[in-house]
What we know:
By secondary structure, the protein is of the alpha+beta class. The protein folds into two domains: about 1-105, Glutaredoxin, CATH 3.40.30.10; about 120-165, Antioxidant, Horf6, Chain A, domain2 (Antioxidant, Horf6, Chain A, domain 2, 2-Layer Sandwich), CATH 3.30.1020. The chain is built from five helices and eight strands. The strands form three sheets. Strands 5-6-8-7 form a four-stranded antiparallel beta sheet. It is elongated. The relative contact order is 0.11. The model has no long low-confidence stretch (mean pLDDT about 90).
Amino acid sequence: xxxxxxxxxxxxxxxxxxxxxxxxxxxxxxxxxxxxxxxxxxxxxxxxxxxxxxxxxxxxxxxxxxxxxxxxxxxxxxxxxxxxxxxxxxxxxxxxxxxxxxxxxxxxxxxxxxxxxxxxxxxxxxxxxxxxxxxxxxxxxxxxxxxxxxxxxxxxxxxxxxxxxxx
Length: 167
């Protein structure tokens, strides 16, 4: 994440981490991250040693206890969630990874690109979409409006219209 901080910044996205470890331990593992990856962690963290935030957003089961103290790594395995929150303060995406699976930051960035594009232009992105590829015009946009907005489109089916990605 620290190595991609500029990618997020270029998209106008702010990063914040959450940890159920005591706040005093954050400096140590920030140092560990820098040593292991070469990247300095510069974004803020929420200390959640009482597990309130983790439980509120279903990152831990309700019966997980009331503190991070004495918890084994296996107990913290579900605290591996990524939330993308839009400018409207609503959660747009939630991804939760098992402890044994690394996060896919390319997918997170792709999703952010899609969320930003679709909010601005009333389009949708198909499966496996990448920047620059064709998009789908949403049903909320009439054919006449689609022509004025996008210039042209391909009507694959009456309800499925593709066009070039707007800029």
